[in-house]
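Dear Dr. K.,

Following up on our conversation at the group meeting, I've run the structure prediction for Methylase of chemotaxis methyl-accepting protein from Pseudomonas knackmussii. I'm pasting the input sequence below exactly as I used it, so you can double-check it against your construct before we proceed with anything downstream. Let me know if the numbering doesn't match what you have in your notebook.
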Amino acid sequence: MSDTRFFQLLKERIGLDADSIGEALIARAVRQCANRFANGDLDVYWQHLQGSAEELQALIEAVVVPETWFFRYPESFAALAQLAVRRGLELAGARPLRVLSLPCSSGEEPYSIAMALLDAGLAETAFQIDALDVSPVVLERAAHGRYGRNSFRGNDLAFRDRYFTAEGQDYRLDERVRRRVRLRQGNLLAPGLLAGEQPYDYLFCRNLLIYFDRATQDRAVQVLLRLVRDDGVLFIGPAEASLLSSQGLRPLGVAQSFAFLRKAPQAPERPAPVAKPWGPQVRHTHAPRPQPVRQAIERPAPRPSPVVTGAADELAEIARLANQGRSEEARQHCERYLAAHGPAAQAYYWLGLLADAEGNAEQAQAFYRKALYLQPDHQESLLHLAALLAARGDEEGARRLQERAARGVKRDA
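The predicted structure tokens came back this morning:
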């Protein structure tokens, strides 16, 4: 589809850069919506879009396909819990902690935040979470609080026993978690977003900025900075770390948390502890009063990895370890994989992502380029390398990589 007006409309309304996900994917969504409403007539469908907020929202939801699960990037929630306990002691009940999740999709992220804070010993009244998304469909799903097995990944699912009730093949979320989250429809780029709200202590905005062009990224970051307190913390996706670093924000210093300080502290601080992956907690009948965190929490001995056989199983194990925040183990698995099987694009991609998450942009670029040498149309490497180049000011290089990624999607369409 060479009709670019739909691409431009989505960019204006939600900041979506068509190249970031591929024009073919958007064109497919447009055709599906036009077939449903106007028998495939794009001009008729376009005219209807201009006057129908509902139809525009349907198109947005056809394009934006959320991919999320509970406690994704577990180190982030461990870091949040430690920060929240300390901040709660400082506030001494003067006000509740304020947390924002945007976009919240079908609720897995804001509900994970609530479970992490409850497990850290915070009382229900000690915090409030706002969760925003552009899609009323996913917000309705979040409000329903019922989740299938795909929302529960990894080996440590003890939280499911504490906070969910089995209902057939699904699981129903406990009401005490649901009532700590206020679900609202909102667009990050809408003028005056949350203008009447006080700034937040902690803000989660993960894996959204990589889908914007550089100008929209800069605009979005300014909105995020407006929404978070001067002494607050931003949690972002692993591929977005370079972007925030280029904006002058300083990493929190907790490995694999992908967290950035809104402003650097005025006085030097002790290094932040390494947060442990989110694991089993003691369920409290009555939440105890949080105690000061006086030293780093010891990381428990990692569980033995399952025995894997075959290249596909080994790559799946690398992905599992990386998604659980076990970066050193994932890196070792990548190196063993390369030694056993020889150069492989997917293994180099994971090494690049691990380096990217640790803020080592030069090393990440080198690994992404190795992946692309072996597989020139490797989508994830193209997009992540494009994000790194854009963050360093190489707009032309980023644009070329995005175009290559889009061409790959078109071939698959």
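Two things stood out to me. Residues 5-63 form one domain. The beta strands are 97-101, 127-133, 146-147, 164-167, 170-173, 181-185, 200-204, 228-235, 250-251, 259-261.

Best regards,
J.T.
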